[in-house]
Design goal:
alpha+beta, about 240 residues, two-stranded antiparallel ribbon, globular
Length: about 240
């Protein structure tokens, strides 16, 4: 992550967005995951309506082989900025539709995480993934078919977890604390009960909680720095 020396105005602007944003309706169907999600247009519309004056964002999309990368930039008229690390999404098929779907997924996922939009991680990004093999129906001892199991949620991959580990390590370093207690506290706040059995939905909640924790920490630090400066000048009687 890259940022300007001071992000106090961006922190205030993000706080205003969080106060004013109205969560969009999940009105798009995903037959692959049998779930509903918010389309990219809905996420963008909800964010744009909540943006305070002088605050804007943009996204940069790049590709490298069978991978799409999306970087999100926050900008304030004061000159302050934050450039988030890119989200990399693998593309399963080498065609325009798969790349377009991966781009849409990455843009929507990152915007939702940054601005606190509950768009649901199980979205149209299935065009960039491979279908899992179907399980054969279970047979009971009497030969009758057992009741179908409830479909399990898509699980977070090792790459997903490595990304989260990297974010935890960076945040822990900035906050001058050990990564393990930070991760444990973040999992508790995000209501993620198991690292080993973490779903994509859990991953989304954990990632959002880390982004929120980072913004709150930097906002508090900026205010403390400003307070220290004011106290210094007061002590000098200038």
């Amino acid at each position: 992550m890259k940022k300007s020396e001071n992000i106090s105005e961006i922190a205030k602007a993000l706080n205003e967005v969080r106060k004013n944003i109205k969560q969009p309706e999940k009105n798009a169907n995903n037959p692959f995951f049998k779930s509903k999600y918010v389309m990219l247009e809905g996420v963008v519309d909800a964010i744009d309506k909540a943006l305070p004056k002088g605050f804007a964002y943009t996204q940069e999309v790049t590709s490298d082989g069978n991978q799409i990368s999306v970087s999100t930039f926050l900008m304030h008229e004061s000159g302050q900025y934050i450039q988030f690390d890119p989200l990399n999404v693998p593309v399963g098929k080498n065609d325009a539709q798969a790349f377009g779907s991966a781009e849409t997924y990455a843009r929507r996922y990152t915007l939702s995480a940054v601005f606190g939009v509950t768009s649901d991680v199980d979205d149209d990004g299935n065009q960039a993934t491979k279908s899992a093999p179907k399980e054969q129906p279970n047979k009971r001892k009497d030969g009758r078919q057992a009741p179908a199991k409830t479909p399990s949620k898509p699980m977070a991959t090792a790459e997903d977890k490595d990304t989260i580990k990297g974010k935890v390590a960076s945040l822990a370093k900035e906050m001058a604390m050990e990564p393990k207690p930070l991760l444990e506290a973040t999992m508790k706040h995000a209501k993620v009960s198991s690292w080993g059995q973490m779903s994509k939905e859990d991953l989304n909640a954990l990632d959002h909680e880390l982004s929120t924790e980072l913004m709150e920490f930097r906002s508090k630090k900026s205010k403390d720095d400003e307070k220290s400066s004011d106290e210094l000048f007061d002590s000098l009687n200038v």
